[in-house]
Amino acid sequence: MSDPVVTRFAPSPTGFLHIGGARTALFNWLYARGRGGRFLLRIEDTDRARSTPEATEAILDGLTWLGLDWDGDPVSQFARAPRHAEVAHALLAQGRAYKCFSTQDEIAAFREGARARGESTLFRSPWRDADPATHPDAPFVIRIKAPQTGETVIRDRVQGDVTFRNDQLDDMVLLRSDGTPVYMLAVVVDDHDMGVTHVIRGDDHLNNAARQMLIYDAMGWQAPVWAHIPLIHGPDGKKLSKRHGALGAQEYRAMGYPAPAMRNYLARLGWSHGDAEFFTDEEALEWFDLGGIGRGAARFDTKKLDHLSARHIAAMSDADLVEGVNAYLVSRGEAPLDAAGNAALGRAMYCLKDRARSYGDLLDKAHFALAARPLDPDARAREALHAAPGGLWPELTRALQDASWTRETLEAGLAALASTLGIKFGALAAPLRAALAGRAVTPSVIDMMLVLGREETLARLADAGCSS
């Protein structure tokens, strides 16, 4: 029986949850959860100048909104610095690392000279094989003893085998002169101690993998399975940036995209399962594998996101949509609906959810059900009210007063009234739409009447008759 899968997401808390980071987290979550494994969260907060509690909270909030639950408490990389230093000193004691007393000025002079001679500027420390008896009483860093011949091969599940010549790898610093560990060391020690079996991350870390392998090999640790995924580009094929639009997960939440739609869309950014575009979480968990990840950069396409979002909204239950709308309002700093509003939205949902692309769309289409009398018509609605045929409101009221409140009866009654008045149904529907919603673009008048009920419908017609 194979060991359980353990993946991790390890963001730096220097800003919001980038959409690329959200996809990386999703891939790790899908891979672990789909195999009964564990998904861990590590906050790489070693950059104390840029790491903030607010950024950490934003990342946790973004993951929670996306529904990417993690196992255990988030691990602080900074808090584990003593453990990282312990490993550096262990390598030093084993002769797999050494103290380097070269100063920054000496290193700069070496590189300048090498550049002038047309040679490699890769720093080769004169202290690598120095007798400890010759060590001065001076500040030093601890460097790993990297192999200087042969090759390091990263067997990547996405990129294939990637080979690095060892003579192109320097003796990487593990511990700075002030005793603090470098990022490369911290990542390896944390992944090892956390039992991470699969490292799924952006391909901008591929070169890091070669340097991190030096530590795995020196410590005699089992390296994880590597999977370096291509970055996300904008529609123009360039690296995704602010000029392409929103970058943070919270921004998409504030735009009203349901979390299931974002999970579906992000999963399809660089990964595929046959021709499947729209799928459920259950299907994604069953299908997701590393072999389905392409090597080419994925392109973020808002139109495709809108399309998937509309399909998810149409497929979601009315109760889940009402809950989602309220969470959307709260995320925008607005008050959630009250009990009456929730009930009205629930009654109306059947005629709102088709073709709505976001929670904002749902709220906009639900205006008729949520607005309180007297309505404040918009400009186009006022035009429709003013263009209403004479005597329309009393006639409508008489036709609807005792009508059976069913779709068939209402449709037949309105059609008969239009015929009696000698007008087309559209000439009747336009002012009726304006009276019921105060808007010119709404669900059908029949749907609005069924949602509002007889009493509210007649009250709105009376308001319209008084204001015309």
From TrEMBL:
Molecular function terms, GO-annotated: ATP binding; glutamate-tRNA ligase activity; tRNA binding; zinc ion binding
SUPFAM superfamilies in the record: An anticodon-binding domain of class I aminoacyl-tRNA synthetases, Nucleotidylyl transferase
Ranges where the Glutamyl/glutaminyl-tRNA synthetase class Ib catalytic domain occurs: 5-306
GO CC, one annotated term: cytosol
EC annotation from Swiss-Prot or TrEMBL: 6.1.1.17
UniProtKB keywords: Aminoacyl-tRNA synthetase, ATP-binding, Cytoplasm, Ligase, Nucleotide-binding, Protein biosynthesis
Binding site for ATP: 242
Entry's transmembrane regions: none
InterPro entries (alphabetical): aa-tRNA-synth_I_cd-bd, aa-tRNA-synth_I_codon-bd_sub2, aa-tRNA-synth_I_CS, aa_tRNA-synth_I_cd-bd_sf, Glu-tRNA-ligase_bac/mito, Glu/Gln-tRNA-synth, Glu/Gln-tRNA-synth_Ib_cat-dom, GluQ/Sye
Residue window of motif 'HIGH' region: 11-21
Span(s) of short sequence motif 'KMSKS' region: 239-243
Major localisation: cytoplasm
Subcellular location: Cytoplasm
Tree of life domain: Bacteria
Reactions mediated catalytically: tRNA(Glu) + L-glutamate + ATP = L-glutamyl-tRNA(Glu) + AMP + diphosphate
Segments forming domain Aminoacyl-tRNA synthetase class I anticodon-binding: 321-464
GO process annotations (BP): glutamyl-tRNA aminoacylation
Family statement: Belongs to the class-I aminoacyl-tRNA synthetase family. Glutamate--tRNA ligase type 1 subfamily.
Function text: Catalyzes the attachment of glutamate to tRNA(Glu) in a two-step reaction: glutamate is first activated by ATP to form Glu-AMP and then transferred to the acceptor end of tRNA(Glu).
Database matches in HAMAP family: Glu_tRNA_synth_type1 (MF_00022)
Subunit description: Monomer.
Annotated protein name in UniProt: Glutamate--tRNA ligase
Lineage, uppermost ranks: Bacteria, Pseudomonadati, Pseudomonadota, Alphaproteobacteria, Rhodobacterales
